[in-house]
Amino acid sequence: MLTGFEIITEDLNPFEEKEVLPLIVAGLRSKIGKAQAVTSSYICKALEGRFGKYKLNPVKLRKIISTIRINGILQGLCSNSKGYYLAETDEELLECIDSLSERLRHQQMVVDALELQHKFKTEYERVNG
């Protein structure tokens, strides 16, 4: 769970683990290579109505995708602006790794900037009362 986003980033419940995740894994198994990428909205719509009132939202889908990746359920599960797919080549996998690494570096730059702003604000308030 992420601080400030607890409700939307909560862990998968047993239903999502046992019913929803396996269907997503099954659907992604055939999406080999960038050309076969499927969007999150496509996946959510494909599952719509499948479980009655349960509706998969993009945030929960990202949590499921993360679970699949972290637990190695599908090897080389990549994403880009076209959607999710399984890497067909080492190049595709390395490109995805590079993209995720760039996003991490950018997020770290934002954290560093905010920490610096907080430091200056705190120092200003200490000096100026």
What distinguishing features does this structure have?
single chain; extended; mainly alpha; two-stranded antiparallel sheet; 129 residues
Topology (SSEs and partners):
Blueprint: H1 14-28, H2 40-47, H3 58-70, E1 77-80, E2 83-86, H4 90-128
Antiparallel strand pairs: 1-2
Structural account:
It is a single chain. Helices cover about 60% and strands about 5% of the residues. It has about 130 residues and is mainly alpha-helical. Strands 1-2 form a two-stranded antiparallel ribbon.
Q: How far apart are the termini?
A: 37 Å
* DSSP strand tally: 2
Structural class: mainly alpha
**How much helix is in the residues?**
55-70%
pLDDT average, as an integer? 91
Strand content: 5-15%
- Which sheet architecture does the biggest sheet show? 2 strands, antiparallel
Using only C-alpha atoms, the radius of gyration works out to: 19 Å
Arrangement of strands in the largest sheet: 1-2
The outline comes out as: extended
Uncertain runs are none
